[in-house]
Amino acid sequence: MTKQYYDGPIVDAHHHFWEPAVNPHPWLADDVLIPFRYGDYTSIKREYLPPDYFKDAAKHHVVETVYIDAEWDPTDPTGETEYIHRVAKHFGAPNAVVAQAWLDAENAAELLAVQANYQLVRSVRHKPGGAATPQRAADGERTLMCDDRWLQGYAKLEKNGLHFDLQTPWWNLHEAKRLAADFPNTLIILNHTGLPSDRSAEGLANWHQAMTNFAEMPNVVVKISGIGLADRPWSIEDNRWIINETISIFGTDRAMFASNFPVDSLCGSFDTIFSGFKLAVRELPYEEQHKLFCTNSRKYYRTQNLKP
């Protein structure tokens, strides 16, 4: 098939909706500002619902979306799931959900069973924490992926037919590789490209090696998203190599594009980011581009068309 700039349907594999004035997101409260990889995020502490999202995405043919948990009050994890299903029923989006689940909680088994019973829930996310720098990881600091109680919760994912969305920097991927090996029937979906924030030659080489090692596991896939840089506008010049190397490492059957909106609006417009994705892969056969923008997200998240 003739190579061309992608103009087909998009299934956005990672985004958020929220209403900070009424929803219990601790990090979005007016008087809270947590350390954040993009710096000051005050500008996204605003209502963001499907009409806002589709206005941002207007230049691109987004047909379905995947909602990712947004760190709702951890004492009420199903509250967020209830909320986002009401949003989906009213607006026809999102079309799949990654729910909150604290895998080391005493009631983790019961919670996973409840979450899995919701119509749109396909996966859960629990950021495993751990070393904040590569050196601290090298010195032996570990994440919850090495915690026995957390692993007991993780073991319940397969029984409930749930995937696991993993958000962790690349220097913790050796733990994730072991997790994938120990639970081969649970799909791990790596969020935000392994967070390649260090763009020095050494940083990129280490990221590349960690991603290559992780990708050896057959039950892992990756979302290309969240690759903006603090205090720097999103550009294809900064990100083309990251995009193309991720696809080279995982292949076009195990990678998918995502906006991470409204969070990534801190570094670029929806059009800038998705036009950059399209430019980066325009030399690929069109059917391979379609996998990255649409087919893979539908396959892994089993999105539902909610429109009448």
Automatic annotation (TrEMBL):
GO terms for molecular function: hydrolase activity. SUPFAM superfamilies: Metallo-dependent hydrolases (SSF51556). It comes from the Bacteria. Residues 11-302 form the Amidohydrolase-related domain. Belongs to the metallo-dependent hydrolases superfamily. PANTHER family: AMIDOHYDROLASE, BLL3371 PROTEIN. This is Thioesterase.
